[in-house]
Design goal:
228 residues
Length: 228
């Protein structure tokens, strides 16, 4: 009995470490998103390059947490509920790594755009980033807290990002139709907005997986098509 209690205490400590590492990884992804859009808005090559360089740190941290989770699964024989949580953690860190890739993509767009005259002041794209990073931060806390109601609220906020994306799309399309000379610059901004829309979609995936861990019901949230 004492051995079992000791084993459970060890498992709980390792599980807490996994949760802390997920929050850290999420913080890294969140920072990359914010800085990439800041680089785009301020036309700052130094910030953009830093985001690109730091993506490797996100990748490395993802692999470290993955190894940690797999080791727990292999050596501790977790119960069904714990196993479901660890499987969700594996899923979530993959989503976070992909969000970091999207931020890197925005940073590369920022570098390309620096040598071109600005097309327009950026308002909606930074707003998309603000909403998406807020969603990300709160979704990870909802996973840690096992907060189903928070998952539902965050899931619905994706509509706000989608609406802003459609607004950006229509505005940039108007620029391109009225002046073909703006096509390249407008397309760059459209791709940046697209990446932010995909980041928000991946946050909804985190919410859906968390809801499944809490309820055991894969349809606890309505569900969306996973982004490419």
């Amino acid at each position: 009995m004492e051995a079992a209690s000791h084993s459970r205490a060890y498992f709980d400590r390792q599980l807490q470490r996994v949760r802390e590492d997920i929050l850290l990884l999420g913080s890294m992804a969140e920072k990359s998103i914010e800085r990439s859009v800041d680089a785009l808005k301020r036309r700052d090559a130094e910030i953009a390059q830093a985001v690109i360089d730091d993506d490797r740190l996100i990748d490395d941290r993802t692999y470290e947490v993955e190894e940690q989770i797999l080791l727990l699964i292999a050596t501790q024989q977790p119960m069904a509920s714990d196993l479901r949580g660890l499987a969700a953690a594996l899923f979530i860190i993959t989503e976070l790594e992909r969000m970091g890739d999207y931020a890197e993509g925005i940073a590369k767009i920022a570098l390309t755009a620096i040598d071109q005259p600005p097309l327009k002041p950026l308002v909606d794209i930074p707003r998309m980033a603000e909403i998406a990073t807020s969603m990300l931060h709160r979704s990870l806390q909802a996973f840690i807290d096992q907060d189903l109601e928070a998952c539902r609220e965050i899931w619905h906020e994706d509509d706000d990002v989608d609406n802003l994306y459609q607004q950006v799309y229509r505005e940039l399309l108007t620029f391109m139709l009225e002046d073909p000379g703006t096509i390249e610059r407008a397309t760059q901004l459209l791709w940046a907005a697209h990446n932010l829309e995909r980041i928000a979609d991946r946050v909804t995936n985190v919410c859906e997986r968390t809801a499944f861990v809490i309820t055991g019901d894969p349809r606890a949230l309505p569900g969306r098509v996973d982004p490419d």
